[in-house]
Amino acid sequence: MPYEKVGKNEPVCIADEVPFEIPESWEWVRLGELFQHNTGKALNSSNRSGELLTYITTSNLYWNRFEIDNLREMYFSEAEIQKCTATKGDLLVCEGGDIGRAAIWSYDTDIRIQNHIHRLRSYSEVCVEYYYYIFFLYKHAGWIGGKGIGIQGLSSNALHSLLFPLPPLQEQCRIVTKIKEIVPFLDKYEQIEQHLNDLNVNFPEMLKKSILQEAVQGKLVTQDPSDEPASVLLERIRAEKERLIQEGKIKRDKHESIIYRRDNSHYEKLDGIERCLDDEIPFEIPSSWAWIRLGSLFTINPRNNIADDTVVGFMPMPLLKDGFNDSHTYEKRLWKEVKSGFTHFANNDVVIAKITPCFQNRKSAVIHDLPSGYGAGTTELHVLRDYTKMLYMPYFLIICKTHAFIQNGVKNFSGTAGQQRVGKDFVSNYLVPLPPVNEQKRIVEKVNNVINSCDIL
After folding, report:
1. Separation between Cα atoms, residue 377 and residue 314, nearest integer Å
2. Do residues 344 and 372 make contact, with C-beta atoms less than 8 angstroms apart?
3. Computed from CA positions of residues 375, 376, 378, 380, in that sequence, does the dihedral angle turn out positive or negative?
4. Rounded to an integer, what distance in angstroms lies between the CA atom of residue 38 and that of residue 249?
5. Which pTM value belongs to this model?
6. Quick one: 39 exposed, middle or buried, by C-beta within 10 A (0-12, 13-18, 19+)?
7. Closest to 87 (Cα-Cα) out of 110, 71, 54, 121
8. CB-CB contact of 299 with 387 (8 Å)
């Protein structure tokens, strides 16, 4: 057990102060027994007697180095110069700022120190670098300015009483040599560890992005040959839209896009002109799927036509949740209070935040459970409405949360910095892969299960 004898007092056991075991050939010593230490001069702008000299503060002292550009000056008397000057080989330690931070003054030119720096100068021959590493260990172990045996400050008394392990001199030098051999590997390990930490933090979100991309490429669930092909679904959708147009419920799209395959290529007919789309198709899809533009499936940003005294849901942007889940809340309002100056939506609509950073943060949802089925909210939304009632809207929410949709939207931002948005044309013209309806439902169910599992990671 380690004991300490101070003056004529009886020896006292100091086992509670000793942080770790040391070899039998080593000794525990108080730092004040090894080093003479002084603090520097306190700043005093009114004192202008003596010699005007440069000095360093804790802001110039870093681990194992100094930043000495643009040093400040103050007046030092002869006695202060002797007490506050660091010479080559002195170990300098922060008393203030980052307590315990240390570096060896390795310059040939002497320097003065300010009062929040300790100057340690050994009484006899020691390996000063070894004691620098001890300060590094104590600081990063929390034993200086931390908990446990920690010293909260480094006054002269606290520094004098700090326990250091003392090896034989030659072993001090061997330890330093070995540390210098290891440090490059430690630096490399630190970089790898930081990379792994970043990967662990970002992995769940990266995995979710991959899951959504796999889902919309038809790779997350298997295709069922008994499903009605997307081409047949599109024929039924077009027939239903024509019926709604004839009844005056929706307007005819003057620039309707029709996409089809011929000779293993994709073609689009728009305004009576046919063109090949192969350069725009981002990936292959199953044979039972089809490519379509969002504007050919949905009415973008529709308006509600309901009575003024109808109770509806009102949704400012904070009530639309971000991330990969489908979530929103609302406040109750009368329609006459919110019908003007706000975006209209209804149950089963997909809403997408269009302004930065809400767009990148995936603020989007399928609207549900509104009072009377209708609502209004922030003007910073795009709305997709399926008047045909033939599509499974949660699938299209998945598309709007994919990394590809977000990336392409950002590329098409317009507006000034901090007020950039995706426009209606981007949403309307966006190419989406359309699976059969039953497969849309299976995809959503699978995505939700896997996303929930990712949240556990």
Report:
1. 5
2. no
3. positive
4. 88
5. 0.64
6. buried
7. 110
8. yes
**Tokens in use for 436?**
């059969």
**Bridge-based pairing state of the strands 27-30 and 35-39:** unpaired
Q: What is the DSSP string of 270-291?
A: ETTEEEE-TTT--S---TT-EE
Cβ proximity of 142 and 150 under 8 Å? yes
- Block residue for tokens 């024509």: 242
CB 159 within 8 A of CB 37: yes
Residue 189's contacts (CB-CB under 8 Å, 6 or more residues apart) are: none
68's CB contacts (< 8 A; 6+ apart) are: 56, 60, 107, 111
Give the Cα separation of 192 and 198 in Å (integer). 10
- Tokens 């080593």 -> residue: 26
Blockwise average pLDDT, block size 10, the chain, 457 residues? 84 88 93 91 82 93 92 92 94 87 95 93 94 92 61 75 93 96 88 84 86 95 95 95 93 88 91 91 95 96 96 97 95 97 98 96 97 97 97 98 96 89 96 97 95 77
Backbone φ and ψ for 251, nearest 5 degrees, come out as -95, 150
Q: Cα separation of 353 and 345, whole Å?
A: 13
Note whether 362 and 323 are within 8 A (CB). Answer: yes
Q: Which residues contact 91 (CB under 8 A, 6 or more apart)?
A: 35, 102, 103, 104, 105, 119, 120, 121, 128, 131, 132, 135
DSSP 408: H
